[in-house]
Each structure stands twice: as structure tokens, then as C-alpha cells.
Amino acid sequence: MTRIAMFSSRRTLKNLAGALAGVALLLPALARASEGTGQAPPPKATAPAARGAVTAPARKPPPHRAATMNKKARDFYQGAWGVGGLKVSRVASGNLIRFTYRVTDPAQAASLNDRNAKPILYAPRTRAVLSVPAMEKVGPLRQTGALKAGQEYWMAFSNKGNMVKPGDRVNVIVGQFHADGLVVE
């Protein structure tokens, strides 16, 4: 008998032994289930929670309801980068993801407006990295030019294949600027 044939027969024996052990464990449970009416026993009723007791929520929050950014994060982006009102939303039937921001300090927000910086949107759930598409006659789908305080600016990321869905958390990276954990609306 060759070495390969012995290895194959040992593996077959181990697989067979594992299957038999699994069946042996299931037989008593199957026998108990078949006794009586043949139906599974009704679920046991749980005791009601005591007053004031904290219980786990029944369901997850719906994905279409966006989580708002807390005050500490808003203050950080406004103080460090001169932007506020960060928002990520799906547009054009989900084929584009639009990132909008309001400039509060044009000098600090200049890094977001740098033409040499390649903006990317990273979705950790799907590990997708989206970029700003460049059209032939229009150029990149983002606003550039002189920034003004109080003005809202945007950039659009290509979402080909609908890798990013509403409710996903995404990170927007433009040069040194990082906005992490933004919820897609």
C-alpha cells in the first residue's frame, strides 16, 4: 500500500468515526423528541422584568435612522479642520456617495480643498475603498476653488456595485483629514 493510499484511508476512517460519534450524540435527543405527541415542547414562559430593571432592547435601531455626531466630535472637526456639518448620503440611485461639509474657517479647511490630495471613502464593513471619479469634460466630481466661511462644499465618490449601503459607517480621508465613523444616510 502506498503512502498516499494509507493517508487517504486514515482520513476516511477519521471522518467516518466523527460522523458516527455525531449520530450517537443525536440519537437520544431524536428518541426523546419522537416520544409523546411528536412535537417539540412549548417554550417556557419567562418571568416579567422587575420594575426599574434595565433590559436589553428588543431590536437593533433601523439602519435608515442616522446616528447623529456628538458635540465633542463636532467641536473637534470645527476646531482642528475648520469644518462642520459633515454628512454622507447616497445619491443617483446609490451609484454615488456624496460627502458634504460646511466650512467655518477657510484657512484650516484648505487641506480638504487641495487638488493634489486624492480623497477616498473607506467602508470597513465591506472593506471597499471608493474614489472620486473624474469625468472627461467635467473633471473630478468635487468642488475646488477659493473657500468661503459658511459655504457648503461636496465631493462625490463612485459606488459602483453598491458596496456602501444606507446605515453603513464610513471613513472619509482627504490628505491629512480623516473623518471616521460617519453614517451613510
Describe this structure in words.
It is a single chain. By secondary structure, the chain is an alpha+beta fold. The protein folds into 2 domains: 1-33; 71-183, Immunoglobulin-like (Sandwich), CATH 2.60.40. The chain has helices spanning 3-34, 71-81; strands at residues 83-91, 96-103, 120-123, 128-131, 134-135, 139-140, 152-158, 169-174, 177-183. A 4-stranded antiparallel β-sheet has the order 4-3-8-9, with no helix packed on it. The protein has a 3-stranded antiparallel β-sheet with strand order 1-2-7. Strands 5-6 form a two-stranded antiparallel sheet. The protein starts with a helix and ends with a strand. 14% of the residues are buried.
How would you briefly describe this protein structure?
The chain is of the alpha+beta class. It is built from 2 helices and 9 strands; from the N terminus they run ααβββββββββ. It has 2 domains: 1-33; 71-183, Immunoglobulin-like.
How would the global form be characterised? elongated
How much is the average pLDDT? 80
Biggest sheet strand order reads 4-3-8-9
Q: What is the name of the CATH class of the largest domain?
A: Mainly Beta
The total domain count is 2
Q: What sequence of helices (H) and strands (E) makes up the elements?
A: HHEEEEEEEEE
What CATH calls the topology of the largest domain is Immunoglobulin-like
- Low-confidence runs: none
Distance linking N and C termini: 65 Å
- What is the strand tally? 9
Q: What structural class do the secondary elements suggest?
A: alpha+beta
Name of the CATH architecture of the largest domain = Sandwich
* β-sheet strand percentage: 25-35%
